[in-house]
Amino acid sequence: MKTDGISPVDAPYRLSYPVNTVNWNGTCVERLPRDRYEPQFQLLRSVGVDAVMLTGYVTVEPADFDVDEETKRVGELLGSLGMCAAQHHGLCATYAPPGESQDEVVERLVRCARWTANLNSRVLVIHPGNVISHFTTIEEYDRAFHETAAKIGQAELMRLMARNIDAAAEEARAFGVAIALENVHFFNEDNTLLPALFAEVRSDNVGFCLDFGHAHYQGGGCGYWLDCLGDRVITTHIHDNRGKTDEHRPPGFGTIPWPDMIARLHALGYHGYANFESGPWDDPDPAEGYRHAIAYWRACERIARG
User: Fold this and answer.
1) Measuring CA to CA, which residue among 99, 76, 22, 84 is closest to residue 52?
2) Structural domain includes residue 142
3) Which parts of 28-101 are beta strand (E)?
4) Residue 51 lies in a domain
5) What confidence category does residue 7 fall into, taking pLDDT thresholds of 50, 70 and 90?
6) CA gap 44, 25 in Å, rounded
7) Residue 231 sits in a domain of what CATH number?
8) Are strands 233-237 and 84-89 parallel, antiparallel or unpaired?
């Protein structure tokens, strides 16, 4: 199974942090000016981080720019700095209403995979269970999923989504990109849905993005997901909370036992990135904030190694 990095097991994980290069305004995707994000790339490089998590090159809303050309340009900029995108966190539908053609679903997934490759990334992360529509709330996607499951049966809906994901993943393989399904929203709150979907997936180019923060506050606990889908983990979202809401705190500012989680990842043979879906520690100097956050994580890794 492809992973998003190449760190040897038990070695310190390669790290990535999120940087915004586009903005969603609810009606379209807007390109941010280069001088808004290139300094963030350079700041991360200065503290020893050589990868970023990029988000937002999506097909659910039109863009005010040529996405293919822009993703190539951002990927080239990262390469010129000795960096890469550890993952592209996209947003793609996984099914069309039953009885309708599924071709556009697959085409959009493949398009996002191509943009992922342009960004110098190996992994496209998506939220499973979204119908091909432009809703404005998670509740609408949730309702559409459960109404469709009630109409045709949950098992048939899982098979429909799996066929689309499999088809897209095989085309994405040609770009060197794998597709990762995240435990998120109603596919986290009901922690039986994602394992049921993986049971129908056939492509070995589809893996699991384990979001530790989501698992901790709502999804039955990190241990549950490591037990049932740990062998499918190809990338991560790492952030902390206090077990009640999705706070996206830096590790160490919540109640997730990070040395234990790192030890579990080592035991599973995971050697991809530690992708922080959180920011640095609070410090007047952003570089020092990142250094503190990284030092804490490295300390947890040393504890995990015993």
Assistant:
1) 84
2) yes
3) 29-31, 51-55, 84-89
4) yes
5) low
6) 26
7) 3.20.20.150
8) unpaired
The total number of structural domains that make up the chain: 1
User: Could you tell me where the beta strands, DSSP code E, fall in 109-177?
Assistant: 123-126
pLDDT tens track for 171-225: 999 999 999 999 999 999 999 999 999 999 999 999 999 999 999 999 899 999 9
Instruction: Please write the tens of the pLDDT for every residue from 100-134.
Output: 999 999 999 999 999 999 999 999 999 999 999 88
The helix or strand, by DSSP H or E, that contains position 181, with its residue range, turns out to be strand 178-182
Closest CA to 92 of 206, 196, 199: 206
- Geometric angle at alpha carbon 234, from 220 and 299, rounded to 5°: 75
- Could you tell me if residue 4 is inside a domain? no
Residues shown for the chain: 306
User: Would you give the DSSP letter of residue 190?
Assistant: S
**Range of 200's domain?**
15-305
**Is there a domain that residue 5 lies in?**
no
**Cα–Cα distance, 281 to 288 (Å, whole number):** 8
Three-state SS at 23: strand
Position 25 pLDDT exceeds 60: yes
Query: What is the predicted pLDDT for the residue at 8?
Result: 60
CA distances from 289 to 81, 123, 204, 281 (A): 21, 27, 38, 4
